[in-house]
Every structure is written in C-alpha cells, then in structure tokens.
Amino acid sequence: AQGDAPFDPAAPTWLQKRHFGCLMVNARLALLHSAFDSRTGQLSIRPPDGPPLVVDTRTEQGRALVAAYLTEFLGEEARGTPRFVEAPGHNFTDVAKKCVSIIGLSSLHALERAAGTWLDPLRFRANIYVSGGTPWAEFDLLGKEILLGGARLRVFKRISRCPATEVNPETGERDAEPPKWLRRHFGHVDLGVYAEVLEGGRLAVGDALEPADGDLLH
User: What pLDDT does 214 receive?
Assistant: First the structure.
C-alpha cells in the first residue's frame, strides 16, 4: 500500500488500486518480478539487475525491509513510505467482488490488427487466456455461468482497460495506447471479462471453456 493509503488491516475495506503500487501510476514496477508464498510469508522481489530481496513478511523486520526497498525503487512516485499489508479473507483486486479475469485472445488479436502492432498479452494481466472463437465473444457470456476445467464461474462484468496496459512488461516504459486504440477502433475501452467463482476446481492449459447451459460459443 502507498504510505498515504487509508487501509486498516484490522478493519479492511476494498480500496481502488491507486492506493497501492500499480502499473497505472507506477510503470517502473513492471521491472520487478515478485513471488509470494502465503504459507510461509516469504516474499521475494527480483530487480532487473542485482540480487533479489527475500524477506519473511510475518516479521516486523521483513516488512520494514520491503518498505525501504520500494521507497528507494519508486523514488518520487512513492507517496510516503509504502507498507506491506494483508488481511485474511480480504481481496486486493481491481473490483470489489472477488473474481478472476478472462481474456479472449481473438479479441486481443482484433485490437492488434486495428492498431497495426503486436501487444504482449501480459500487458493485460489476465488470470485466464482463452484461444479460439471470434473477437469479443466473451462479452456474450455476461450474466451466464461457464464451465472451465473443474470450476464453475459466472461472468458479471466487462473489463475497462486503464493506463496500466500502456506499460511494456519487459521494459517498464509506456510505449502503447490500448485504451485509446480500443475507443478509436471499437467504440469502447473494454477487453476481457470478470467472473466470480461459484465452484472451485483445478484448471490446466488446454481446458475448454464452455457455457454451462450448453450453448456454443461463436
């Protein structure tokens, strides 16, 4: 969380992502590769050069090391001293409802053709990428239940893309304008959908996405 974020771990409430470190306002964060083990509390942050920072976030010392590291890395973009925050059962997501994000790669390819450039799918940070089908077919799933691997989900919202997608995940530079291109060529800024998990299950590469009512995707 940014140093000025009004987040209280003892009484957690959902906050917009601007209260935390995010690519929308902190493009340089794309240069950091992190991994977190929720069982042990171990967090590792690997910069583009130099040794990684590995800490135990369950300790005050570990959290202080994270704060100092991000304060230095973000520089003027740090609003106060960043804090490592957590709250059991709370979700730190772009929308208040607990969900996963799904992108149809056909829709992404349609945007690429219209813009005349390749876009790394990682710009859009989806939980699930689906190949096949026609562009924007995922929008037809709004309000419907879907089956994916062993899970059942309900699609409830289109994803409006923000300036985070302008950031190149390899360089940390803003070198593309997906929201502007979506608006110009398609009349909206949406790419992908949010879905809430109704029944959990194991997913694997190659699993099919199917509407629960048996209708075919087009």
Answer: 72
